[in-house]
Amino acid sequence: MAKALDNHRNLRDCMRVLIITEYFPSLMEPAITGGVEARAWFVSRLLARNHAVVVLTSWRRGLPRSEGIDRVRVLRVGPHHPYSNDNQVMSRFAFAAAAAAKGRTLGRFEVVDGQNFIAYLPAYFIARRTGARAVATYHEVWRGDWLENKGWLVGGLGELWERLVLTRPWDHLVAVSRFTRGRLMAHRIPAERISVIHNGVDLELIRTSASCRKNQHTLCMVSRLVEGKRPELLLEALVLVGRLQPDLMASFEVKICGDGPLMERCLELSRRLGLAHQVRFLGRMESLQDVYRLMKESALLIHPSKVEGFGIVVAEAAACGTPALVADIPPSREVLEMIGGGRLFRPDTAERLAEEIIRHFTCDPVPVGHPEALHWDVIGARIEALYQRLASAEASSATVPTGSIPTEPFSGG
Q1: Confidence of residue 394 (pLDDT cuts 50, 70, 90)
Q2: 234 and 155, same structural domain?
Q3: Based on the domain organization, do 209 and 340 belong to the same domain?
């Protein structure tokens, strides 16, 4: 890993980089829960080959407060903060306050990068306090959508928080997709302050994960069980497949990997729809290798999510040799365009998904695609180049000269 970084070790000055992210794996609990955590995990370890990297993250009971992982110094701060996509408002804000306080005591950094909503403001204020470049890595823009997505309490607080984030004079923002870049520009962030650097795929880990025979009747979904990911849409579509093609449905084994607040509701719906004997809820798997093993053995990945920053799970499935049916939203279109595979379905009803499942298995298989352009070595080298140019820019300038950073061309969003 990180050959692209190692090749130029002697030509590059060592930077001190602080990455702030809500969740980060531990050697004691190596499971990764989503794209934000995966990006922080891979980027920090790649950068640590050549630079001094510190990660500030939340603490959970049973985990060490301080830990060294592949030359990355990991510091866990604040009170116990469990994995959660919903609620946990108090422990989230407590983490933000603890991160801001701790970051000011760690000395000088060249770059401070906040990697998700709750990490942005601590990252900004630490950077301003320590003289570092303030960077925000943006997966999704929710400004204007918080109330619809999270309700009045959490949504109201989130809306206020993100308004504060987007009105700060950041040195640079990294968008994980052209779609996200377009959303940022819609909120008056200048285009020259935004670079598009996608999330990546660990091709080596996938290739070395245990091989297994492809089961031509296994479908999988790999996602957190939250409203925006729509696991219930898959269950409803399976019922329709059973009505239209009962023999085909009878042959299926469906595995849903992931945890979240909808778990009990999905289990109950599965029982009520008569799917309990065919649908297995696996919960959160212990390691990425286990997730990749599931993808490798599956004939088709279903990704019905309507809320995405980029949707890297689709590219990971392609690297595992598994095609994906994906809800047609702009970030997912972008992923499929990059890998040259997969297939979109209209996301409005379960009927559309059911039709595409039947189409794949009866007459027109979904193409797999090729995710090599999203190799983490390539992504890591681009992030390193951006950080170095930001660190070397004149203190009076908050932008990097046009053309000096590698970035995807913007084509709308």
Answers
A1: very low
A2: no
A3: yes
